[in-house]
Here is the input.
Amino acid sequence: MTPAPDPAPEPRAAGSPAPAPRAPVVGFDLDMTLVDSSAGITATLRAVLAEVGVTVTAADTWPYAGMPLELILAGLAPGTPAGQLEVLRARYRHLYPSLGVASVRAYPGAAAALAAPAAHGGRSVVVSAKHTPNVHRVLSATGLAGAVAEADVTGDLFAEDKGTRLAQLGATAYVGDHPGDVRAAAVAGAVAVAVTTGSHDAAALLEAGADVVLTSLEDFPGWLATHVEDLRTDPSPATARGEGERAAPLPG
Here is the structure.
């Protein structure tokens, strides 16, 4: 017996309003996405690990950029008992404001990228693995704090946990440098926008599932215009995800 075809969607009643277009709500990762914080992270890690007899270099710490502190410490000091790792984490958080913040620099285009959603009626949010007080310190030190409401800044989250927070914030896109950020966007039902300013190249980010890869945040406002148009023509969540699309890296 031939199955009956699926029923056609019911037409919108005459005179009923069309769905309102979704305003862009764009989440941004912090470390190695909005800011180059590698020198300060390395300086703080070196100081903390030296206290337990472990020596590390910038080359050692670079692959861990953007990861949660507990994973970084476990990777750089393997075999350290969990209780001692917690002590090291607390020590890092104590030292980072004095050793790590001053050397942080905003990437070219970061300020313009954070400001861009507001020009389209939307807003930017920041969701980071960094300890929340230090996220605020870095945003303030780099002159980026004014573009994001304090309530829209969240730290201490990584990968899928970021995605849960992004969904709560209504994110339509998430910008990050790490495969974990791509997974966060997927959980949130948002477009995964990757940048190659961290330790992962375009091929790795596309393999992780990024919808688009930018070489610099200077390319972001141009990409955002296409995202806004997508939201305007079809405000459904599937459009926000960029479902079924995979884009090659954009030149920059």
Residues 238-252 have pLDDT under 50 and may be disordered. Residues 25-36+104-241 form a domain with the Rossmann fold fold (CATH 3.40.50.1000). The chain is about 45% helix and 10% strand.
